[in-house]
Amino acid sequence: MKVILHLAAPGTVTDRAAVLFIVQPNIHVPPNTTQDVTYDCNIPVDMSVIKTASHMHKHGTQFASTVAGAPFYSTDTWDEPKPAIFDPPVELHAGDPLHFACTFQNNGPDTLTFGESAQTNEMCILVASFFPAPFGQPTIDCQ
To answer: CA-to-CA distance for 29 and 84, rounded, in angstroms?
Structure first.
């Protein structure tokens, strides 16, 4: 995929894009277990989503998400998962319930917890690009 950006002429930008960035930091997967780590919240503002993806580390075997009960994004790839590109954008509404879950397989001797190391820690993150951006907020979280 190739992205080409052009400078917009003054006064022509009608909507700015932003990022919905949601982190589930409560990860505790005991040794020799498989466990789902979930997160539930509500979409904070009306938005038109153009792209979404997940972020996990090497113990992640599945990521699945829904909005208002409808499938939103899923992958079984932890390393550079292919994002979903929506054309036309997916319309989400303030208050829509968002649910996501990461499945982790811990075959090691230590409990997996949230952290930076792709070898010894895990992450469970949903990222979505959308418009219009709430004024002055390039990145937002769920409620």
So the answer is: 28
Place of tokens 């700015």: 16
Q: Which domains does the chain have, with CATH numbers?
A: 18-134 (2.60.120.230)
Question: What average pLDDT does the structure give for the chain?
Answer: 95
Instruction: Detail the DSSP E strand segments found in the chain.
Output: 18-23, 28-29, 33-42, 47-55, 60-67, 70-75, 84-92, 97-106, 112-113, 125-131, 139-140
Mean pLDDT along residues 65-84: 97
Higher pLDDT, 81 or 134: 81
This prediction's pTM: 0.91
